[in-house]
Design a protein that fits this description.
Length: 444
Amino acid sequence: MKTSSFIIAAPTSNSGKTTVTLGLLRLLKNKGYSTQPFKSGPDYIDPKFHKIACGKTGINLDLFMMREEHMRSTYHELANEVNVACIEGVMGLFDGARKSEGSTAELAKKLDIPVIFVVDAKSVAYSVAPLLYGFKNFDPDLNIAGVIFNRVNTKSHYKFLEEACEDVGIKALGHVPFIEECKIPSRHLGLSIDNLSKYDQMIGKMADQMNETVAIDQLLSITQREKIVLEEKAETSNPDFKIAVAQDEGFNFSYYQNIEALKQLGTVQFFSPIHDQELPNSDLVYFPGGYPECYTQELSANTKMRESIKNYVENGGQIIAECGGMMYLGKSMVDQKGNELPMVGVFPFTSSMEAMKLTLGYRKIDIDDFTIKGHEFHYSKVHQDENVITVGTVWSAREQEVPTKIYQYKNVLASYIHFYFGEVGDLQQLLHHLQNNHVSSVKR
């Protein structure tokens, strides 16, 4: 049995990878193919658009946060279930944390799958030839199987691009014109997630266009690969261990693999800090990130939920909280207009969206005698955290110590970092730390 497997990449960011990926996913769905999308890197937002396009959420594949064997098994396990496995790359093809380490190119090589290149050809014709030649020959272990040209509005323009591909030895798979209404606005340096459903029509229009100008059958033919047979996983879940995961409009940035690891430990149930009145009966609560700053009024007004969480913590409840989840557990939150509203109050600090400044990057965290990895991306900042107990040491991808803090109070661990604990062993290490190193109070 075979699956068409490929990764969509580009010379630079803003070349049209996401637009082409979404159109392709919808077109494949329209043609009756079962498709599993993936996203290279730690992005939470593109995978949500993948679900709109084809009905399945994109799964993150990340060579910094994930061990290689874990990354491979995640990919092949899901790719084996479908006709087409489509990975959306990140940034430029060779852009990595260090040179090309962790890049789209490295991911393609680790998985031994071909690259479908998306090139923005708005201001170039035959001069695209040396660009393609350079990318094709820079790394001979990389297979650039074909090119889709973006923002090409005439057949005569595309003819120059086809000739360039012929001379370089890369298949021209078609082109996509510039369509004004198919633009997706940015939000926080990522795609907007406001009113996601409104993008459905745009994706449909892009799919219809690609059906006319992109050689889909040829693309699927040149990217076919044999399915990889995997060993069956042993079931380890303890149904009596209850795990509650925050999931609603304000909290929805969680890696698929993290949730799967939680399911290996116990019974997972979801709840809403915005809409529900109290925590479910739980042995562990996970607060992922999201956009709680957009729902400060609703979160603050739900006093019963806030009290429920505070009581859970004071009675020894275990919590892992990341970014937006950490902000919610603070004393208060300040929105962009300077309005301050009370939050849960587990920690005495205030998080603020005023004077926003971006902090981002991969993180390696050393806690006790184990290491866990993650990613940091936020515009807010924390005030009045001087007396909060912190644990561990945090490093960048280049092994430089960074000032990001891991806060702890009793059995609660919280940070701006989105932890990756997609392998159950990493999750167990975190819980072991909480159970054996709980902090009874803030500093005095």
